[in-house]
Amino acid sequence: MEVVEITDADNLMVTVYFDSSTKLPVRQVYKRRNKEYNDFDAEVTLFAKYRDVGGGVQWPFDVRRDRNGEKFFEMYSDSVKINKDLKDSLFELPANVKMRKAK
Prior knowledge:
Blueprint: E1 2-7, E2 13-18, E3 25-34, E4 39-52, E5 58-67, E6 70-76
Antiparallel strand pairs: 1-2, 2-3, 3-4, 4-5, 5-6
């Protein structure tokens, strides 16, 4: 298992566990402060049953998310299609949209 810890500008951290042979993520752990109880809530996402969905893209067909040890989301896929006939204009912003300045 390869472990990568990612920290953002707000000092929030997510830990991702990658399979050492496939280099695909199998587990993700995110902890956030629970202001009500002054402790941490832990969200764990598990990824499994990867399949090639086209163009060499591996996609998990089984995704499960637990919060503090209780399952609150689970998804099973029968089929996945990516980038099917998407036009470039789908990703273009309208001319009147204000852009944020880079930091």
